[in-house]
Amino acid sequence: MAALAYTNIFTNDIDRLADFYGTLFGLEEIVASRSPIFRGFVAGGTSLGFSGPGAYELLGLIPLEGQGDRAFQTFDVDNEQEVRDLTGKARELGGTIVKEPFATYYGWFQSVLRDPDGNAFRINFRGAAA
């Protein structure tokens, strides 16, 4: 079975976005991988990377045109209160709340947000709502 090693977010300002997620979730930076076009962080069993515009050429990719959600990151936490607390912290750090913390029909508790670049992400507790 394959394992997800990295998920990367392209951004025009890798420092701003890396600092947003690093500060919000207390992620440990993988300093050895830092470059002018990349910053990476340990994020549980995978790693989260932030790639600047120079990474497109390195990877042989052409930036997609237009707006729209193309990726959706989910960050699991240990309890409902942590969902609430991190949702508020995300707002303080420049994020936008799309949907306040709520209980899902499948028994999880989560909020939906956008980071300072407008990328959608979710803060999630995989337990029954109180």
From TrEMBL:
| Protein name per its UniProtKB record | VOC family protein
Q: Which Pfam families match?
A: Glyoxalase (PF00903)
Recorded source organism is Sphingobium rhizovicinum
Ranges for domain VOC come to 3-126
Q: Which InterPro entries match?
A: Glyas_Bleomycin-R_OHBP_Dase, Glyas_Fos-R_dOase_dom, VOC_core
